[in-house]
Recover the amino acids of this structure.
């Protein structure tokens, strides 16, 4: 039997997910893999037999280097919810039939919570049928909400981008001599790690954001408006950062108070957008102050021009560590990052049972927030700052970054 591996990418893209792909690919090749196949559009692509041999595409060291510096998902992504094999065994029979035809021994999936759910289900089914295929999860999500890992590749670069952009928004917001409220919406769904990163904007050269609203704390509109009015008495221009996933005390998302159309994906995740716009409108209606809303939206996911060198290096490392673990016989696990020290910053990799990761969410510890939960404490910055350090400049050609993308896969 050939020693073949297969890898896929799933969920939302990041600026460093391709570095993890490079780590899996080179880690598998260096350990003797005959072929490393790629699933085009994740597990959904595998079910549709959309498979490429990465050796046909990643030929030179330059292509590998370009892959590491190219944002988004080189293999494409999906949001496909794999049913449990007890509910629909036919899907698993098809997947394992394809894997057998390809002579796959090692299966890697790069993604966040939903992707780890896929690894969990596939590895459980493999045990059920006594398959020798090794299934390994490779962490990825800008939301930073995966359990057992100190942080997730993708988060550091997104946080760096947010910190930079917020400084620029603050500069823009303070040019007029009239009261003004700017409300900025940040991604993160049910965890506030990204929104908390807006606090990086506060430094000796920038006033920073004036208020931060996180989904870890139930949102109360009256308290929000009272604090906004109080801030306006202290300074004429204020900037507020809010998470897209802010929830009211009754469990509804704040964005659901607007009349925007909502889409729900296969995992039951609602499309969260409009929180900043709703709150900005409330400021204008209830306080009578000019206000605007800004949604960073998908811009914060794949900002390859502001990638953290620490982040891209660790993304490559977890990919390589997954290959090492799988070739050593591990299965049903996810590679995690374990912090050894902050100063100097040191981090290593380890593996954890996938059942401790799938379908759980890691939130910001409430003790890392100030007394009224509208700002972070220095402990949060001690945690985050090492992750945004240094830059890996894109390879520029004719003034623009050079990317690599998968061609002719249909």
């Amino acid at each position: 039997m050939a020693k073949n591996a297969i890898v896929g990418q799933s969920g939302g893209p990041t600026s460093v997910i391709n570095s993890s792909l490079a780590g899996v690919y080179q880690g598998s090749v260096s350990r003797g893999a005959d072929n490393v196949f790629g699933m085009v559009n994740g597990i959904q692509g595998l079910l549709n037999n959309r498979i490429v041999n990465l050796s046909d595409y990643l030929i030179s060291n330059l292509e590998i280097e370009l892959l590491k510096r190219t944002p988004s998902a080189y293999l494409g992504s999906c949001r496909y919810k794999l049913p449990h094999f007890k509910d629909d065994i036919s899907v698993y029979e098809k997947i394992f039939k394809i894997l057998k035809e390809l002579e796959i021994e090692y299966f890697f999936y790069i993604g966040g919570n939903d992707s780890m759910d896929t690894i969990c289900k596939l590895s459980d089914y493999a045990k059920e049928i006594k398959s020798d295929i090794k299934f390994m999860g490779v962490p990825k999500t800008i939301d930073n909400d995966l359990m057992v890992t100190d942080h997730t590749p993708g988060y550091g670069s997104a946080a760096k981008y947010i910190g930079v952009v917020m400084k620029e928004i603050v500069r823009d917001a303070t040019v007029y001599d009239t009261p003004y409220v700017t409300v900025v919406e940040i991604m993160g769904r049910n965890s506030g790690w990204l929104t908390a990163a807006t606090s990086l904007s506060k430094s000796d050269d920038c006033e920073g954001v004036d208020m931060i609203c996180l989904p870890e704390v139930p949102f109360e509109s009256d308290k929000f408006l009272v604090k906004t009015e109080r801030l306006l008495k202290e300074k004429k221009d204020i900037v507020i950062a809010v998470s897209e996933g802010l929830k009211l005390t009754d469990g509804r998302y704040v964005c659901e108070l607007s009349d925007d159309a909502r889409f729900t994906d296969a995992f039951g995740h609602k499309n969260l957008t409009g929180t900043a716009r709703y709150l900005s409108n409330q400021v204008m209606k209830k306080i009578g102050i000019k206000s605007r809303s800004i949604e960073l939206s998908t811009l914060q996911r794949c900002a390859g021009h502001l990638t953290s060198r620490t982040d891209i290096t660790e993304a490559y490392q977890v990919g390589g560590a997954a290959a090492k673990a799988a070739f050593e016989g591990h299965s049903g696990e996810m590679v995690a990052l374990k912090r050894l020290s902050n100063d100097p910053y040191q981090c290593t990799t380890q593996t954890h049972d996938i059942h401790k990761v799938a379908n759980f969410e890691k939130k910001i510890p409430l003790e890392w927030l100030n007394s009224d939960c509208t700002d972070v404490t220095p402990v949060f910055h001690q945690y985050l700052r090492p992750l945004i350090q240094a830059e890996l400049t894109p390879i520029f050609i004719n003034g623009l970054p050079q990317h690599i993308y998968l061609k002719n896969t249909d």
